[in-house]
Please model this.
Amino acid sequence: MQEYGQSLTGLAIVALAALVCGAAMHRLKQPPVMGYILAGAILGPTGVGLVENREFISLLAELGVLMLLFLIGMELSLRAVRDVWRVALVTTAAQILAGVLAMSALGALLDWPLPRTLLLGFVVALSSTAVAIKMLQEIGELRTRTGQITIGILVAQDLAVVPMMLVIGAFRGGGEFGLEALLKIALSIGFLAALIVYLLRRQRLRLPFAKAVGNNPDLIPLAGLGFCFGAAALSGLLGLSAAYGAFLAGLIIGNSTSRRVMIHHTAPIQAILLMVFFLSIGLLIDFAYILDNLVTVLLIVAFVAVLKTGLNILVIGLLGQPWPRAILTGALLAQLGEFSFVLAALGLEAGAIEDGTHRLIVAVTVLSLLGSPFWLETARRLHRVALLGVTSGRETMRVTFGSEATALVSSAGRAKILLARWAGALWQRGTEWRQPRRKDPPPK
Model:
């Protein structure tokens, strides 16, 4: 009983810390989810150690994953992506292909197994929906063509997460890609594709329990959560991921006549469970690991950001979009995403990666998300460039980062001059030291 009371006390403190950190991030014009991650990191096993039960943390994370996928599915607007589907699909496919190829090249050098290579490639391909939408809101581009393209790519990535999870889950227990696993993945992806086409071609669905529930504010959220958990349980019984069923449940509700009412009544519950998910991610952060591997982690964060930004700019520009728009969209999608945590946890459970790789993915993803203020400032500058009517990609980069480039060149020039002076002084002293000293003549 005493242990139970201590658990409740710790849970209350964690929730309060999440509120404080989330509010602080909101004041800094950052997504509150970053505050939840920060709160978990501070109170977790490698922080002050208030929460140390790993099983409890894993349970929270699994529950959060279900609700995250349910929420993503419910809020997906398939009709809104119809106008930009070509750009969204091609860009997302290019991201996945580039991520897998890059990790395959690295895996060939380091002798990585196939599951680890695929998992890391998938992680690199994903971007943060929460951070990107927050940045679009801050710069006033959410309802513009740039916002449509960015959101379209994010929606395509969210849809691609489901096949990714099925592929990683097929390696559970050290299994290989046999005929049964391939058939299961193909049927799951085919069913998802057929459902999307069906939802796009007809009017909104009417849920079977909508009439029974009516407008009762107590029954509506319970019906939505019951539908989510029921679909998740059915998916699990069929040998698929429970998260797959939760995503399908959200997708069906999101394209039904009950969408607005369901989102309105379940929003508070979803907000709390999403807080739990991101809080559990923070609890998994290992500060000691980050400090011991700080250089490696920072190099990977920088490499991923540059790779994703450059690839997105190139693909979107080649698809016929103006280069300033392509550069702005590329900057908005530069960070890693929330589903990187989901894939990492699934990979650890399935045995695709070991604990060290899982900690590396968590560390890189968290630092990538924490670097979003830099990308937000970049997006603001690019937005100002677009308002000026600049159409050249080179001119866009000059106007956007011209001051930093000038300062960098100036600093490099000063450093070069100081280095030359220092080297000249050393050379002169060395020359004087090598010259033989002139001896005085002996006294007469």
Remarks:
- The chain has 19 helices and no strands.
- The radius of gyration is 26 Å.
- The chain has one domain: 54-371.
- The chain has a mean pLDDT of 77.
